[in-house]
Write a structure and sequence with these properties.
10 helices, alpha+beta, 2 domains, four-stranded mixed β-sheet, single chain
């Protein structure tokens, strides 16, 4: 993912917009203007995409601020048409930190959804049927484009918060699953299991248009492809980093073994030969464990 264009900073974190999102914004503006009507009508048509943009931004800032609280360096936040990414410098150091960072994004969305629902209830405007049409992307009803701001905030935050909790690695739910597995089996094995489940979720998105209705569902295979590519990239990165760590450990153990052998050779000649053989034998056992 390229860096995109920096538009502003929030508490020192650069917010960047990907070029494809800029293009999509221009296209939406052209479509809204083409529909005609007063400036207020055009503004209402563009309101929902604007709320969605802010929803994704809040989600990623939840990740970024939590990662910073755990000592991670946050490079920036990049927003794209398919979501966003809080880019961290270096991997998360522990499974507990990863679970907290992954959970922070959906939690921020669900808190906002709950606040919007509470205000709508107080106003007597909480409409489950209308909310259902927005959450299921029923754009034919027109609710997605002309719904009031509170209803859009509720729908988009509820949708983004719950979908990201699905155990489809590297989505947030998949990262939480990996963190739980990491506690008992290590990062590499946990990543492999989480990646397999993520691949199956991506395949499910590929074939989903055969089982759902509505022209808007064409986006699901695109999301599945994005999920698949991110899944593969994450697994390769983890396996590479874990491989380097193992090689470093093997080199360190080998160096210690060589030093032990050198010290054994430097012992006085009166030392029994069996002791030297015993030191060598122990070194081989250690080296074999490292290689495995």
């Amino acid at each position: 993912m390229s860096g995109g264009y920096e538009v502003f900073k929030i508490r020192g974190i650069a917010i960047r917009v990907h070029g494809s999102l800029v293009f999509l914004g221009v296209m939406l503006a052209i479509i809204a203007l083409g529909e005609g009507g007063s400036p207020a009508d055009v503004g209402w048509r563009l309101m929902a995409p604007g709320v969605l943009f802010l929803t994704v931004l809040i989600h990623e800032l939840g990740h970024a601020f939590t990662a910073r609280a755990h000592g991670q360096v946050v490079k920036d936040v990049v927003l794209t048409p398919l979501g966003g990414a809080a880019r961290l410098q270096g991997a998360v150091r522990s499974p507990v930190a990863e679970a907290r960072v992954a959970l922070a994004g959906p939690a921020a969305n669900l808190v906002l959804a709950a606040l919007a629902a509470g205000i709508l209830l107080l106003q007597g405007q909480f409409d489950l049927e209308s909310l259902k049409r927005i959450v299921t992307l029923d754009i034919q009803s027109g609710d997605l484009l002309i719904a009031d701001p509170l209803r859009c905030i509720l729908a988009f935050n509820l949708l983004l918060g719950t979908l990201n909790l699905l155990p489809a690695f590297p989505m947030d739910g998949g990262r939480i699953l990996r963190a739980l597995l990491w506690l008992s089996m290590g990062k590499l094995a946990a990543t492999r299991i989480a990646c397999r489940l993520g691949i199956w979720c991506a395949i499910g998105l590929f074939v989903s248009p055969f089982f759902v209705t509505g022209v808007q569902w064409w986006i699901l295979p695109l999301v599945g492809l994005t999920l698949f590519l991110a899944n593969v990239r994450e697994r390769v990165m983890v396996e590479a980093s874990e491989g380097v760590a193992r090689m470093s450990m093997a080199f360190s153990m080998g160096t210690e073994s060589a030093q032990a052998q050198a010290q054994s050779r430097a012992q006085p000649a009166s030392q029994e030969e069996d002791d030297i053989i015993e030191v060598k034998g122990t070194s081989r056992v250690i080296d074999d464990k490292v290689i495995e």
